[in-house]
Specification:
By secondary structure, the protein is mostly helical. It has 15 helices and no strands. Helix 9 packs antiparallel against helix 13 and helix 14 crosses helix 15.
Length: 317
């Protein structure tokens, strides 16, 4: 499949290329092996607790890359949790966290910061990607509405595409041509989260769905608050899911640009998340009464076909 570029992607590509030019001033990690062992085990436990799908996908990586991906996940998890902690000191705590994780010598009792710093240095992850993620997550300190999908995609770049771009450095990739595909996949994954978590976000006082598109389907805030699956809501969700699937399809050829030992894991992450869309459809688009998920058995049953798909991944043209 030839790469398709949407208007909203152009500015995001510029941000990604700019961030990717960051350099590492310290090429070697200097943490004690015992400390690193504890720090990485802590991050693995955090990953397993918070995201079963991500943890399952990470098991498909070689050990060293798996450890680094766990550290990356834990870094993202802590960043996100600080914004939602409800302490009243979120901005201060986020600023302090940023200082710790951007340092080459974080406190030794902060296992996430230690593991993340080691992984970032070890895999030469441009620090600007991490800064962009923190800046993206910080937008939730003052909840806002997105008028258009373009605005939502820009937000999704900050909180999700940056994760994919950092993961690329851990997995390994053949050329910078992988960047547009990582951006697409990040947006697709984040939109899947948003479609699944409508009720949870409403409870937190947040609406991520594009206002312009809600209006097109004649859905207002009262409709959302009612939690009813009207015909209009089903039509709206069908539209969202169809576009989301197109994004996944456009992103998947990028798997062929990754190192072979990481393709299965990334393919699994994408395919397992896409399965959430199927489960939303099976629930007749009711994302209000319960949180949609894919069962552990369902995930395991998907792995053989995902493995075959990852093995057949070829360079995009």
């Amino acid at each position: 499949m030839q790469l398709q570029t949407h208007a909203w992607e152009r500015a995001l590509l510029l941000r990604a290329y700019e961030a990717g030019h960051g350099t590492q001033s310290h090429p070697h990690s200097s943490f004690a092996p015992e400390l690193l062992q504890r720090a990485y085990l802590y991050c693995e436990a955090a990953t397993a607790y918070h995201s079963k799908s991500f943890h399952l996908a990470s098991k498909l990586l070689p050990l060293e890359k798996r450890r680094a991906i766990h550290a990356l996940y834990a870094f993202c998890r802590v960043t996100d949790d600080l914004v939602d902690c409800g302490s009243g000191q979120e901005q201060t705590q986020l600023t302090q966290w940023r200082e710790r994780v951007m340092s080459h010598t974080p406190p030794k009792d902060d296992y996430v910061a230690v593991a993340w710093t080691d992984a970032r240095i070890r895999y030469a992850i441009p620090i600007r990607y991490a800064e962009q993620l923190i800046e993206g997550v910080a937008q939730d300190l003052v909840p806002r509405r997105f008028e258009t999908f373009d605005e939502l995609a820009t937000y999704s770049y900050g909180v999700a595409s940056t994760v994919g771009l950092m993961s690329m450095h851990v997995i390994g990739y053949s050329s910078l041509d992988a960047i547009p595909y990582a951006i697409k996949l990040g947006v697709a994954l984040q939109v899947t989260n948003i479609l699944r978590d409508v009720a949870e976000d409403l409870h937190a006082g947040r609406v991520y769905l594009p206002s312009e598109e809600l209006e097109d389907f004649k859905i207002d805030d009262a409709d959302l608050a009612s939690g009813k699956c009207s015909a209009r809501w089903r039509d709206f969700m069908r539209f969202q899911i169809e576009r989301n699937r197109r994004l996944y399809a456009e992103a998947m050829p990028g798997i062929g640009l990754l190192n072979r030992d990481g393709r299965f894991a990334i393919c699994a992450a994408a395919e397992l998340y896409q399965r959430i869309l199927v489960e939303i459809e099976r629930a007749d688009y009711d994302v209000f009464s319960r949180r949609i998920s894919v069962s552990s058995l369902g995930k395991l049953r998907l792995l053989p076909s995902i493995w075959w798909k990852s093995r057949r991944a070829t360079l995009p043209h």
